Amino acid sequence: MQITRTSLSGVLILEPRRHGDARGFFSESWNRRTLLEAGLDLPEFVQDNHSLSAAVDTLRGLHFQSPPHAQGKLVRCGRGRLFDVAVDIRKGSPTYGQWLGEELSFENGRQLWIPAGFLHGFVTREPDTEICYKCTDHYAPECDGAVAWDSLGIDWGLTGAPLLSDKDAVAPGFADFDSPFIYHDDFEYEARS
Ligand SMILES: Cc1cn([C@H]2C[C@H](O)[C@@H](COP(=O)(O)OP(=O)(O)O[C@H]3O[C@@H](C)C(=O)[C@@H](O)[C@H]3O)O2)c(=O)[nH]c1=O
Fold first, then answer.
1. Which of 17, 70, 131, 153 is most buried, taking the most CB atoms under 10 A from its CB?
2. Is residue 189, in this structure, part of any structural domain at all?
3. For residue 188, is it within any domain?
4. Binding site membership of 134 for ligand 1 (Cβ less than 6 Å)
5. Which DSSP helix (H) or strand (E) runs through 14?
6. Which of 46, 48, 49, 73 to mutate to test the pocket of ligand 1 (most atoms within 8 A of CB)?
7. Where is this site: Participates in a stacking interaction with the thymidine ring of dTDP-4-oxo-6-deoxyglucose (predicted)?
8. What is the number of structural domains in the chain?
9. Which domain CATH number covers 151?
């Protein structure tokens, strides 16, 4: 398991080992003990999500759930290829309002750990792309929120107009967004030697 820090404290790239053989590969896509041994103690996951986006340039986001149902998400791509985006919305964070994007694909098996306190969204780069993510809290529609995908200057790498949900098409811009999250400095991951 390779764990890599990113430009946003708390957001990590995880690359589980793939055991290839004549049949294909085997990979432990989630193993709490392996991560603990690597020095990473993630919160408990209570819900797994899986969605299919049929068309290229399907864009879902940018989403969050407010406390008390804030969600950390461990994201991977089950099929196809997508560009996954996290935006720091922790008030007082040195990187507040900054975003990062990572390509997650079936091919690269990469995962993105996005703690609570971030917006999350993605755009598909291949047809019939599937995303799978583990969440640290249950779906709570009353705490569900969205920020307009095009209000943060994110380079989504679109090839045409994005396909959006009705909800995402009318989401408020980041300038009008009052984040419910406060920064606290305990997001650093220290690899154990
Ligand atoms: C998110 C969610 C939706 N639903 C329902 C509500 C609705 O009828 C249908 C589709 O919901 P949405 O349009 O919100 O789905 P979607 O736009 O895919 O929402 C997801 O986007 C990505 C970027 C995230 O980070 C997720 O947390 C989630 O917000 O599924 C659930 O039953 N459970 C859930 O956990």
1. 131
2. no
3. no
4. no
5. strand 12-15
6. 49
7. 139
8. 1
9. 2.60.120.10
In Å, what is the CA distance from 112 to each residue of 33, 108, 131, 163, 169? 18, 12, 11, 23, 25
Alpha-carbon distance of 150 to 180, in angstroms, equals 21
User: Residue 105: what are its φ and ψ, rounded to 5°?
Assistant: -140, 165
Tokens found for residue 118: 């971030």
Specify if 31 maps to a domain: yes
Q: Which ipTM score applies to this complex? A: 0.98
120 catalytically annotated: no
Q: pLDDT per residue over 44-80, tens digit each?
A: 999 999 999 999 999 999 999 999 999 999 999 999 9
Q: Is the C-alpha dihedral spanning 111, 138, 50, 48 positive or negative?
A: positive
* Whole-angstrom distance, CA of residue 105 vs CA of residue 84: 10
Please give the residue range of the domain that contains residue 18.
2-182
Residue 128: its pLDDT value, please?
A: 98
**Residue 50 CB coordination number (10 Å):** 9
